[in-house]
Amino acid sequence: xxxxxxxxxxxxxxxxxxxxxxxxxxxxxxxxxxxxxxxxxxxxxxxxxxxxxxxxxxxxxxxxxxxxxxxxxxxxxxxxxxxxxxxxxxxxxxxxxxxxxxxxxxxxx
Length: 109
Ligand code: SF4
Ligand code: SF4
Known about the structure:
Blueprint: E1 20-22, E2 39-41, E3 46-49, E4 62-65, E5 69-72, H1 80-84, H2 90-98
The protein binds iron/sulfur cluster (2 copies).
Protein name: Fe-S-cluster containining protein
Organism: Roseateles asaccharophilus
């Protein structure tokens, strides 16, 4: 059983993975939403959120302190990759584990 994970006191998935997505999700393409200035081109087809292509990883749009209190500065404009991670799913738990945050019930968060 997993705890009810609260993204606003976490942010691990924004500080562990390279957050990449199809280039046209950025707002310099028709219909794109992610601010292009906050992205980096990593291949002809792909961009990633700036700060997630380097170590230590931290998305440039992430505000606050990971594991305590965070917010996404572009929440409504975030990529499909960001939207796809759900609290408690495999990627979420992997990110939290990587940063030493609780992944199971009863062990706090
Ligand atoms: S999806 Fe999981 S790892 Fe990402 S912020 Fe939410 S609780 Fe943390
Ligand atoms: S854009 Fe927002 S949700 Fe996506 S990785 Fe950055 S801080 Fe996290």
